[in-house]
Amino acid sequence: MTTVIEHPAQDVSPQIEQIKRRIQIHGDEESLQKAARLIADNLARHGITFEGRELPVSLMPTVVLAEDAANLERSGACVRNVLDRALDLFVEEHRQGKLDGPMHRFFTPYYKFWDLISSEQRQLDHIQLMRYDAVSGAQGKWSFMETNTGCPGGVIHCARIRDAWMATPFGEEVCAGEDIAEFAVDRPEGFVTFLAAKATEIDSDNPNIAILNSHGVHTNELESLRRCHAELREQGVLPAGELLLGDIRDISVEGDRGYLQGKPIALIYNKLPARLIDPSNPELRGWIDASMCGRTEFLNSWGATFLTEAKRALALVSDPEWNTFLELTDEEIAIIQESVPYTRLVEDAAAAGEGHTSLLTGAKNSLVLKADLLTRGSGVYIGDGTSKNDWAKAVEDTRAKHGVLQVKCDLPTRQALGVLDSTGAGASEYFGVDAFFFGSQFAGLVSRSHTNQVFNVGNGGKESPVLIVNPTES
Question: Are strands 179-180 and 263-265 parallel, antiparallel or unpaired?
Answer without folding.
Answer: unpaired
